[in-house]
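Hey, can you fold this one?
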Amino acid sequence: MKISQRSTFWLITVLILFAGFIGGILGNWIFIYLLDKYYGIAAGNYLVAPNAGTIVVRQGPKNNVINPVFSVADAESSLSGIFKRVPGDSPLYLPKDKLGQAITVTADGWLATVTDIPVDKNGQWSDMVVVANDRRVYSIDRVLTGAAGKFNFIHIAKADKLTVRDFILSQDLLIGQELYGLEWQGVVERGILSHQSLGHRSSEEASLELSVSGIGERNIALFDGNGRIAGISRGHVVIAMDSVKAMLAKLLTDNKINRARLGIYYVNVDKGNAAAAGALIGNGSSAAIVKGSPADKSGLRAGDRIISLDGVAVGPSVDLSGLLEEYTPGDSLHIKFIRQNETKEVTVVLDEVPKK
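Sure. Predicted structure:
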């Protein structure tokens, strides 16, 4: 049977398309194999920073779904640069001249930053400006100090529809998880979450800290593989977004940040046993109870192990100071604790953290 020229054309076309399809699959498999074998990049799961010469690997846990459309550019859209104001009608702000950066936390102009914002002679911030993610230059009209003075909230005037990324809280991060440090119009770094910061801390030290290896001492923002903000780096200290979220809630609700005080120093313990978990009151050789504080008035003392606040269990996975961020001065707090193997309960009325 003689095959027509038209049939021959379509047969060749189908064969070429089929060969191309099979070749693409085989090529992708070979590409993934070579990446895994020679570069240690599992399953070809990677993203590339714009104009970067290196690959930034995304190797989240298998049970942590990675959004394949996330890129450095997406995450960077939530960052802004902080500059000293340049005089003139057409000022030019270059990335190399920035004093710091900030993360957008509300679309209408609230940003979080670890950069100190100096006031001018009139008690305002007219000497500073923000170049936001929409590439417009904004004046700063308000600055509020967040947890323990370790970060600030700044508000920029006349901002609207800024890009905001989701937060990921410390309890949703996994040890060994990769995090990506981004600098506004700058470097990209990859780090590994090793643990939450341990040691004695104050119940009013609202900033929960993370330990991330591989991140330099720049002031950068950290993101997970899904582009969610995990923390803000201040030098070698990484402040978890738990603190930012809690302080932001107070700011948006009360239009100010007034933090409640319990007045203890403690260390999270679990001893490998959930039944032994809690916040152990103690501060080494220093006083563990702040004199005149609600804790002092309630009779709490060093060696007590607090196991719950208002029925919520506390310990390494649920930090006491993080729970306190949800309270305001004047709130009553029911505390359950262990003293010499005996369970006790007490109710305290929180007062306000004194202004420094």
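The mean pLDDT is 79. Let me know if you want another pass with a different chain boundary.
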